Amino acid sequence: MKKFIMFVACIMIMTSSGFAAPVLVETFDGTDLNPLLWNGDGNAQVQNGKLVWDIPANGTTTGGIGSGIGSVFTLSGDIDIRVDFNFEIWPANSGIHVASLALYDNYEWMINAQRFWDWGRQSDIGVINGTISNEIPASNTSGKYRITEIDNIVTAYAWDFNTESWKTLISGSTSAHEELNMGIGFWGGPFSAPIKLTFDNLTIETGTIVSESSAVPEPISIILLGISMVTILFKKI
Hints:
6% of the residues lie in helices and 54% in strands. It is mostly beta strands. The strands form two sheets. Strands 1, 2, 4, 5, 7, 13, 14, 15 and 17 form a nine-stranded antiparallel β-sheet that branches. Strands 3, 6, 8, 9, 10, 11, 12 and 16 form an eight-stranded antiparallel β-sheet that branches. The protein is globular and about 45 Å long.
């Protein structure tokens, strides 16, 4: 049984993106993820008003960690999602690590905005179903991501601190989706030093926000990032 999600911290009518829509503002207050909003895999924590991945060093072992949270609610209509991220601890030589904002349809279709950190070299990229945009070099360890779907055109953006405007990472058309989930994720490894990644100030503006009282989607994790990361890793080799 589905019902409109009216119990979130902040839902209102706004037109900042050109269309009137409900708005969900998630500031990650409290000490745990809100189970009415999110399904997590246990690795993400809520600390001091932020969503946190605090990853210890694992020496020089191979392999990586994929972790994330996925929305219990679904989105429909025009969509505009924004979030801030920050690599608070970011050793230059500590393996590959990725911060990702995603919009997806039952893991069969997805668009990601990602900060890709590759042994000291970092860049912003957009990914649609494994198709990767050109890399845009990044120098800040913090940033802002945005994903929109308007009239079946999906676009991933990153904030340009120099021009103080959104820069397009990737854009494309997609067939109509009745309901979509969104998620925030992390992938990385191996870690020769600890990594700490935080997200905050998540804003979702959309035509409809609906809660799912039965079929709860899995959190975004290595499954969600799999298409993107496998493609990226093969591209880098």
